[in-house]
Protein backbone atom coordinates (compact mmCIF):
# COMPACT_ATOMS: atom_id res chain seq x y z
CA UNK A 1 0.00 0.00 0.00
CA UNK A 2 1.40 3.43 -0.96
CA UNK A 3 0.46 6.34 1.31
CA UNK A 4 0.99 9.81 -0.16
CA UNK A 5 1.97 11.47 3.13
CA UNK A 6 5.24 11.88 5.00
CA UNK A 7 3.81 11.06 8.42
CA UNK A 8 1.30 8.26 9.09
CA UNK A 9 -0.36 7.63 12.45
CA UNK A 10 -1.58 4.09 13.05
CA UNK A 11 -3.91 2.87 15.78
CA UNK A 12 -4.95 -0.69 16.60
CA UNK A 13 -8.20 -1.32 18.49
CA UNK A 14 -9.39 -4.26 20.53
CA UNK A 15 -12.82 -5.75 19.86
CA UNK A 16 -14.34 -3.58 22.56
CA UNK A 17 -13.00 -0.42 20.90
CA UNK A 18 -10.01 0.35 23.14
CA UNK A 19 -6.70 1.48 21.62
CA UNK A 20 -4.12 -1.28 22.17
CA UNK A 21 -1.29 0.19 20.09
CA UNK A 22 -0.50 3.44 18.30
CA UNK A 23 2.57 4.74 16.49
CA UNK A 24 3.79 7.53 14.22
CA UNK A 25 5.55 6.25 11.09
CA UNK A 26 7.62 8.55 8.89
CA UNK A 27 8.72 8.33 5.29
CA UNK A 28 9.73 10.68 2.50
CA UNK A 29 6.81 10.67 0.07
CA UNK A 30 8.18 11.14 -3.42
CA UNK A 31 5.54 13.35 -5.04
CA UNK A 32 5.58 15.52 -8.15
CA UNK A 33 7.88 18.53 -7.76
CA UNK A 34 6.45 22.01 -8.12
CA UNK A 35 8.32 24.37 -10.41
CA UNK A 36 8.55 28.15 -10.30
CA UNK A 37 9.28 30.48 -13.19
CA UNK A 38 11.35 33.47 -12.18
CA UNK A 39 10.96 36.72 -14.09
CA UNK A 40 14.56 37.68 -14.83
CA UNK A 41 13.60 41.33 -15.15
CA UNK A 42 13.27 41.26 -11.35
CA UNK A 43 17.02 40.86 -11.07
CA UNK A 44 19.63 43.44 -11.75
CA UNK A 45 20.35 42.76 -15.42
CA UNK A 46 23.69 41.17 -16.22
CA UNK A 47 24.27 40.43 -12.55
CA UNK A 48 21.05 38.43 -12.36
CA UNK A 49 22.66 35.24 -11.09
CA UNK A 50 22.81 35.47 -7.30
CA UNK A 51 25.66 34.19 -5.14
CA UNK A 52 25.31 31.08 -2.97
CA UNK A 53 26.38 31.37 0.66
CA UNK A 54 26.28 28.31 2.93
CA UNK A 55 27.15 28.67 6.59
CA UNK A 56 27.16 25.28 8.29
CA UNK A 57 27.23 25.21 12.09
CA UNK A 58 28.38 21.70 12.95
CA UNK A 59 26.18 19.81 15.41
CA UNK A 60 23.51 22.53 15.70
CA UNK A 61 19.85 21.52 15.76
CA UNK A 62 16.78 23.46 14.74
CA UNK A 63 15.39 24.11 18.22
CA UNK A 64 18.86 24.56 19.76
CA UNK A 65 19.49 27.40 17.29
CA UNK A 66 16.18 28.97 18.33
CA UNK A 67 17.38 28.99 21.94
CA UNK A 68 21.02 29.93 21.33
CA UNK A 69 20.89 32.31 18.35
CA UNK A 70 17.64 34.28 18.91
CA UNK A 71 18.99 37.66 17.77
CA UNK A 72 20.64 36.22 14.68
CA UNK A 73 17.61 34.23 13.52
CA UNK A 74 15.27 37.12 14.30
CA UNK A 75 17.43 39.45 12.18
CA UNK A 76 17.49 36.99 9.28
CA UNK A 77 13.71 36.63 9.44
CA UNK A 78 12.77 40.29 9.85
CA UNK A 79 15.48 41.99 7.77
CA UNK A 80 16.51 39.39 5.19
CA UNK A 81 13.33 37.43 4.43
CA UNK A 82 14.73 34.34 6.16
CA UNK A 83 12.64 31.23 6.59
CA UNK A 84 13.11 28.49 9.18
CA UNK A 85 12.66 24.89 7.96
CA UNK A 86 11.47 23.00 11.01
CA UNK A 87 11.79 19.34 10.00
CA UNK A 88 15.16 18.75 8.36
CA UNK A 89 16.14 15.18 9.32
CA UNK A 90 19.73 13.98 9.25
CA UNK A 91 20.56 11.01 6.97
CA UNK A 92 23.43 9.56 9.03
CA UNK A 93 25.01 9.75 12.46
CA UNK A 94 27.84 12.24 12.01
CA UNK A 95 29.21 14.75 9.52
CA UNK A 96 30.25 12.48 6.61
CA UNK A 97 26.93 10.95 5.52
CA UNK A 98 25.18 14.30 5.82
CA UNK A 99 27.90 16.22 4.00
CA UNK A 100 28.00 13.68 1.15
CA UNK A 101 24.23 13.96 0.80
CA UNK A 102 24.22 17.76 0.91
CA UNK A 103 27.23 18.50 -1.29
CA UNK A 104 27.20 15.55 -3.72
CA UNK A 105 23.74 14.03 -3.42
CA UNK A 106 25.43 10.74 -2.58
CA UNK A 107 24.30 8.10 -0.13
CA UNK A 108 27.21 6.37 1.66
CA UNK A 109 25.16 3.79 3.56
CA UNK A 110 22.45 1.41 2.43
CA UNK A 111 18.90 2.00 3.62
CA UNK A 112 16.28 -0.59 4.47
CA UNK A 113 12.83 0.55 3.28
CA UNK A 114 10.78 -2.60 3.78
CA UNK A 115 8.64 -0.81 6.38
CA UNK A 116 7.32 1.55 3.70
CA UNK A 117 7.00 -1.15 1.03
CA UNK A 118 9.82 0.26 -1.09
CA UNK A 119 13.06 -1.14 -2.51
CA UNK A 120 16.15 -0.98 -0.31
CA UNK A 121 18.56 1.80 -1.27
CA UNK A 122 22.18 0.94 -2.08
CA UNK A 123 25.12 3.30 -1.36
CA UNK A 124 26.19 5.59 -4.22
CA UNK A 125 29.69 5.65 -2.78
CA UNK A 126 31.27 3.64 0.02
CA UNK A 127 34.93 4.65 0.02
CA UNK A 128 34.72 7.73 2.19
CA UNK A 129 37.92 9.40 3.38
CA UNK A 130 39.82 7.58 0.60
CA UNK A 131 40.91 10.51 -1.54
CA UNK A 132 40.13 14.00 -2.81
CA UNK A 133 36.72 14.63 -4.28
CA UNK A 134 37.95 17.33 -6.67
CA UNK A 135 36.98 15.37 -9.78
CA UNK A 136 33.56 14.39 -8.46
CA UNK A 137 30.45 16.54 -8.91
CA UNK A 138 30.79 18.39 -5.60
CA UNK A 139 28.17 21.09 -5.84
CA UNK A 140 30.53 24.08 -5.67
CA UNK A 141 32.60 22.63 -8.53
CA UNK A 142 29.41 22.50 -10.61
CA UNK A 143 28.76 26.17 -9.83
CA UNK A 144 32.35 26.97 -10.77
CA UNK A 145 31.78 25.43 -14.22
CA UNK A 146 28.86 27.76 -14.99
CA UNK A 147 30.58 30.80 -13.53
CA UNK A 148 28.39 31.58 -10.54
CA UNK A 149 29.73 34.86 -9.13
CA UNK A 150 30.52 33.45 -5.69
CA UNK A 151 29.92 30.18 -3.87
CA UNK A 152 30.89 30.34 -0.21
CA UNK A 153 30.87 27.30 2.07
CA UNK A 154 31.89 28.01 5.66
CA UNK A 155 31.81 25.00 8.01
CA UNK A 156 32.22 26.05 11.63
CA UNK A 157 32.99 23.47 14.35
CA UNK A 158 34.65 25.35 17.19
CA UNK A 159 31.59 26.82 18.87
CA UNK A 160 29.27 23.84 18.76
CA UNK A 161 30.89 20.48 17.96
CA UNK A 162 32.02 19.28 21.40
CA UNK A 163 29.52 21.08 23.64
CA UNK A 164 26.15 22.68 22.84
CA UNK A 165 26.29 25.56 25.33
CA UNK A 166 29.10 27.74 23.83
CA UNK A 167 26.87 28.49 20.85
CA UNK A 168 25.03 31.07 23.01
CA UNK A 169 28.17 33.19 23.06
CA UNK A 170 28.26 33.51 19.26
CA UNK A 171 24.80 35.04 18.81
CA UNK A 172 25.99 38.65 18.85
CA UNK A 173 28.97 37.83 16.58
CA UNK A 174 26.78 36.19 13.95
CA UNK A 175 24.31 39.08 14.20
CA UNK A 176 27.16 41.56 13.65
CA UNK A 177 28.40 39.53 10.68
CA UNK A 178 25.01 39.48 8.95
CA UNK A 179 24.37 43.16 9.65
CA UNK A 180 27.80 44.15 8.33
CA UNK A 181 27.44 42.06 5.17
CA UNK A 182 23.73 42.62 4.50
CA UNK A 183 24.25 44.42 1.20
CA UNK A 184 26.32 41.51 -0.16
CA UNK A 185 23.99 38.84 1.21
CA UNK A 186 20.94 40.62 -0.26
CA UNK A 187 22.17 39.28 -3.61
CA UNK A 188 22.62 35.70 -2.40
CA UNK A 189 20.77 32.54 -1.55
CA UNK A 190 21.84 32.22 2.07
CA UNK A 191 21.74 28.86 3.87
CA UNK A 192 22.43 28.84 7.62
CA UNK A 193 22.27 25.25 8.76
CA UNK A 194 23.55 22.31 10.76
CA UNK A 195 24.60 18.87 9.55
CA UNK A 196 23.12 16.97 12.53
CA UNK A 197 22.19 17.89 16.09
CA UNK A 198 24.40 17.92 19.21
CA UNK A 199 26.18 14.58 19.67
CA UNK A 200 28.39 15.33 22.67
CA UNK A 201 28.08 17.07 26.01
CA UNK A 202 24.36 16.48 26.49
CA UNK A 203 22.57 13.84 28.51
CA UNK A 204 22.01 11.36 25.70
CA UNK A 205 18.95 9.89 27.34
CA UNK A 206 17.14 13.21 27.63
CA UNK A 207 14.04 13.21 25.41
CA UNK A 208 14.89 16.63 23.96
CA UNK A 209 18.39 15.52 22.93
CA UNK A 210 17.02 12.39 21.26
CA UNK A 211 14.90 14.64 19.08
CA UNK A 212 17.46 17.37 18.49
CA UNK A 213 20.24 15.02 17.37
CA UNK A 214 18.13 14.07 14.35
CA UNK A 215 16.86 17.54 13.47
CA UNK A 216 19.60 19.91 12.25
CA UNK A 217 19.02 23.62 11.71
CA UNK A 218 17.98 24.83 8.25
CA UNK A 219 17.35 28.52 7.63
CA UNK A 220 17.19 29.96 4.10
CA UNK A 221 17.13 33.59 2.97
CA UNK A 222 16.36 34.45 -0.64
CA UNK A 223 18.02 37.21 -2.66
CA UNK A 224 16.19 40.47 -2.04
CA UNK A 225 14.62 40.65 -5.49
CA UNK A 226 12.85 37.31 -4.92
CA UNK A 227 11.44 37.99 -1.46
CA UNK A 228 8.06 39.13 -2.84
CA UNK A 229 7.71 36.31 -5.37
CA UNK A 230 4.29 34.95 -4.34
CA UNK A 231 4.55 31.40 -5.72
CA UNK A 232 8.13 30.90 -4.61
CA UNK A 233 7.34 32.05 -1.06
CA UNK A 234 4.25 29.82 -0.99
CA UNK A 235 6.35 26.79 -2.00
CA UNK A 236 8.98 27.59 0.62
CA UNK A 237 6.35 28.06 3.33
CA UNK A 238 4.81 24.69 2.47
CA UNK A 239 8.22 23.01 2.53
CA UNK A 240 9.17 24.73 5.79
CA UNK A 241 6.84 22.40 7.70
CA UNK A 242 7.56 19.24 5.69
CA UNK A 243 9.95 16.41 6.48
CA UNK A 244 13.20 17.12 4.60
CA UNK A 245 16.71 15.66 4.43
CA UNK A 246 20.06 16.91 3.17
CA UNK A 247 19.17 15.25 -0.14
CA UNK A 248 16.47 17.93 -0.47
CA UNK A 249 19.07 20.62 0.25
CA UNK A 250 21.22 19.13 -2.51
CA UNK A 251 18.26 19.02 -4.90
CA UNK A 252 17.63 22.71 -4.14
CA UNK A 253 21.27 23.56 -4.89
CA UNK A 254 21.00 21.63 -8.18
CA UNK A 255 17.82 23.59 -9.01
CA UNK A 256 19.61 26.89 -8.35
CA UNK A 257 22.38 25.71 -10.66
CA UNK A 258 19.82 25.79 -13.48
CA UNK A 259 18.91 29.47 -12.90
CA UNK A 260 20.34 31.21 -15.96
ZN1 LIG B 1 29.11 17.23 12.03
Account of the protein in words:
By secondary structure, this protein is of the alpha/beta class. The protein has one domain: Alkaline Phosphatase, subunit A (3-Layer(aba) Sandwich), CATH 3.40.720.10. The chain has nine helices and nine strands. The strands form three sheets. A five-stranded mixed beta sheet has the order 4-8-7-3-6, sandwiched between helices. A hairpin with a 5-residue loop joins β1 and β2. The radius of gyration is 20 Å and the shape is globular. The termini are far apart. Bound molecules: zinc ion (ZN). InterPro entries: DUF229 (IPR004245).
In short:
InterPro entries: DUF229 (IPR004245). The protein is an alpha/beta fold and 260 residues long.
CATH architecture term: 3-Layer(aba) Sandwich
The whole-angstrom Rg is 20 Å
Unreliable segments of 5+ consecutive residues: none
CATH secondary-structure class: Alpha Beta
Helix-strand pattern: EEEHHEEHHEHHEHEHEH
Roughly how much helix do the residues carry, as a percent range? 25-40%
Main beta-sheet annotation: 5 strands, mixed
CATH homology-level superfamily:
Alkaline Phosphatase, subunit A
User: Count the strands?
Assistant: 9
Overall pLDDT level: 87
N-end to C-end Cα span = 41 Å
Per the CATH scheme, the topology name is Alkaline Phosphatase, subunit A
* Adjacency order of strands in the biggest sheet: 4-8-7-3-6
Strand content: 15-25%
Oligomer: single chain
Query: What would you call the shape?
Result: globular
GO cellular component, one term: extracellular space
Amino acid sequence: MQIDQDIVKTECYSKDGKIVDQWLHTQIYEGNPSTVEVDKSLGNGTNFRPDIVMIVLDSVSSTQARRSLPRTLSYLETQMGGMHFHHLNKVGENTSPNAYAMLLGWRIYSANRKAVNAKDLRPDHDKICSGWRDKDPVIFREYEKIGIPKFLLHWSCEASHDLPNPLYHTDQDYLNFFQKNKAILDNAFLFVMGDHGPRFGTPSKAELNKREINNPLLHISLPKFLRNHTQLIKNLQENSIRLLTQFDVHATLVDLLKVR
